[in-house]
Design a protein that fits this description.
373 residues; alpha+beta; Hypothetical Protein Ta0175, Chain: A, domain 2; five-stranded mixed beta sheet; four-stranded mixed beta sheet; 11 strands; 32% helix; 12% strand; globular; nucleotidyltransferase; transferase
Length: 373
């Protein structure tokens, strides 16, 4: 369907990249030992481990790749990925931070393909809309937004155990229950479930209270009758406040006061947790990836939630806005949003969090610069 959708993208982090490189080099080492053993058997010489293992293979292989950025076997330098390791920028502190949050899309720079370079709706809050180089790599080299986080991946076994506990049935049962929901774990069809809303609520509550890893994404696609659960690594997520069904925030004043006390070293957070993890374990904040973002409704500000509670519909909201602006029109006042819904599930932590490291240190980034008009 849409190949630029950010929910279908996976980032390769340093860990998996180094692991892959080590695997190639270790295979090379074992092949060498095998060859030496073969030679010893053919020439009937005694086999000594010291002569069999060449100590430089793994060391030199890692050094070569980290020094040149050609990721892969030195012998096959043509097929290797270039520019994987780079020298860290040290021009300024901001340039260092920005370089550490940079991502790259491996598409040939020469082709004039526009689609992968454009800003996609799903980039909102995940990558910075402004910080990208001009020219050749425009839109292909992106920078992560301030609060975005890349999942490190976790085992799917605990998820499977919970699914079996909550009555997941074999795929063969689909014939007898055509209205049942298909359950997928990491893209693999695991079975069907007849009570999708119940299962979805259960899984969400488990993630919000720490029984499941916070980075597991749970997507209920009602139209397709699917429940998709992802635990793999490299998905980009971002944190959001959770909103109750009565359109109130779960974060209350006493939580904020507690955070301030922790910040000022007046009290300590719970043992083994940071203040942020405390918020997640209490189910006030959760990480949402680009795919799950499609199935939730996010309020921009607390004002949107207030309107959801107190105003009966969009027409009434627009009317009250118009009456208010007729009363005392202030051209410098911030434009109030006229979004109205009564089914918000999450709220943005702060709208400025869509920006990356460099764009967020610009004063008034949401105002046109006068020399540019």
């Amino acid at each position: 369907d849409d190949s630029d959708h950010f929910g279908k993208k996976r980032l390769d982090l340093a860990g998996p990249l180094l692991a892959g490189l080590f695997r190639i080099l270790f295979k090379k080492l074992t092949r060498d030992v095998y060859r030496h053993l073969q030679k010893c058997v053919e020439t009937q010489k005694p086999f000594t481990l010291i002569n069999a293992i060449k100590p430089g293979i793994i060391t030199n292989g890692l050094k070569y790749s980290l020094a040149t950025g050609n990721w892969g076997d030195q012998a096959k330098a043509m097929q290797a990925k270039a520019g994987v390791s780079q020298v860290l920028n040290r021009y300024t502190f901001a340039s260092t931070l920005s370089h550490l949050r940079r991502t790259n899309t491996p598409i040939g720079r020469d082709g004039k393909i526009a689609k992968p370079r454009q800003l996609h709706n799903t980039h909102w809050g995940m990558v910075c809309p402004a910080e990208t180089p001009e020219g050749q790599a425009c839109g292909l080299v992106k920078n992560l937004a301030l609060m975005s986080y890349i999942s490190v991946g976790s085992y799917s076994a605990p998820v499977m155990e919970f699914l079996e506990e909550y009555g997941i049935e074999d795929q063969s049962e689909l014939a007898s229950a055509p209205e049942a929901t298909k359950v997928f774990v990491n893209g693999v069809w695991m079975g069907i479930h007849r009570e999708a809303p119940y299962l979805h609520d259960k899984l969400l509550n488990m993630r919000r209270h720490g029984q499941l890893k916070h980075e597991v994404s749970i997507v209920r696609d009602i139209r397709e009758k699917e429940l998709r659960i992802n635990t793999e690594s490299g998905r980009i997520c971002r944190p959001l406040f959770i909103v109750n069904e009565d359109q109130t925030l779960r974060v209350k004043k006493h939580h904020v006061d507690r955070l301030e006390q922790i910040e000022n070293n007046e009290i300590l957070p719970e043992e083994g947790l940071t203040a942020w993890e405390e918020l997640m374990v209490e189910g006030l904040i959760e990480y949402v990836d680009a795919e799950e973002e499609e199935t939730i409704l996010i309020a921009m500000t607390a004002e949107d939630l207030e309107n959801a509670r107190n105003v009966s519909g969009k027409a009434e909201l627009v009317r009250s806005r118009a009456a208010h602006s007729l009363e005392g029109f202030d051209p410098a006042a911030r434009v109030k949003s006229s979004n109205w819904a009564k089914t918000f599930t999450h709220m943005e932590i702060h709208p400025a969090m869509i920006l990356g490291v460099c764009a967020s240190i610009i004063p008034f980034p949401d105002h046109n610069q006068s020399p540019r008009n």
